[in-house]
Write a structure and sequence with these properties.
With about 325 residues, the chain is an alpha/beta fold. It has helices at about 1-15, 40-55, 75-80, 90-95, 115-120, 125-130, 160-165, 175-180, 195-200, 210-215, 240-245, 250-285, 295-300, 300-310, 310-325, and strands at about 25-30, 60-65, 85-90, 140-145, 150-155, 165-170, 185-190, 205-210, 225-230, 235-240, 290. The protein folds into two domains: about 25-145 and about 235-275, D-Maltodextrin-Binding Protein, domain 2; about 150-235 and about 280-325, D-Maltodextrin-Binding Protein, domain 2, CATH 3.40.190.170. It is about 45% helix and about 20% strand.
Length: about 325
Amino acid sequence: MKRIIGFLTLILVFLTGCGKGEETSTKKIKLAHALTESHPVHLAMVKFAEEVNEKTDGKIEVLIFPNGQLGGEREITELMQAGAIDIIKTNAGPLESFAKEYSVLPLPYLFKDMDHNLRVLKSPIGEEILAATEDRGFIGLTFYNSGTRNFYTKKPVRNTNDLKGMKIRVQTSKTMVRMTNLLGGSPTPLSFGEIYTALQQGVVDGAENNLISYAESKHYEAAPYFTFDEHSISPDVLVMNTKTWNKLSTDEKAIIKTAALNSFDYQNEIWSETEDKLMDSLKDKGVEFFQVDKTEFVEKVQPLYDEVTKDSLIKDYIERIRNFE
């Protein structure tokens, strides 16, 4: 709670530092995230900001605060809800606590492959999910490709037996907690910024994320074994405070939405190339990679589907996604 108060104070000081005499016709929109400045998602957000600035003739300026400058994902989400931040990048997993529609996306082995995932995200299904939090104070502008999520650990994981008893950092997501339990691990929800220290100090034995985040955050220094089980394809999400959104004109909303979708396309183009480069680099640094037989992983998580499909809305989304071509 103290951290939240500290961040709120920081933002309030930032806001009150702009007196009336400094006001201009330019609308300044603050965008915060926890990724590094070399991450493909950050680069996509830079493209987004540039397009918004260009298409509005400089009337809207998007100020990007990367590297967790304004807090981790939990903190910046709360700051956005409080109106201190306009836009944040988060992941679909944590958003399920705001709208159950988001809980569908992190489900293990739901998508056939990455192409299937991206087609769904760009379809009406994706737009429905982005709109699901409007009554909670924010709306989704676009998804970002966040790759496949995989386990990385201090000891090798070649099958589900190797996961037994391992303390695995997961997102604050009921779906990810339940999945990790079913696979034999001991789920430990932590914010992204706490993972490195938690690995070093033995608070957790491993974590799960995409290859790029693993490399960019240097988690390989404490967890040098990376297992390609590809249990989830959970996208990142660019979301905007509805108060800020509602203050925009119809034309400004169209520009921001189009710029967000265009930045998604750009990010997809550079994601795979970045993954390939980092894979080679990580091997040189001593990281060991493992491919697994996914059959047993798929079987172990089946009870999760038995549970979530009791909800008719979730069941419908699962069926629509699986049948989507």
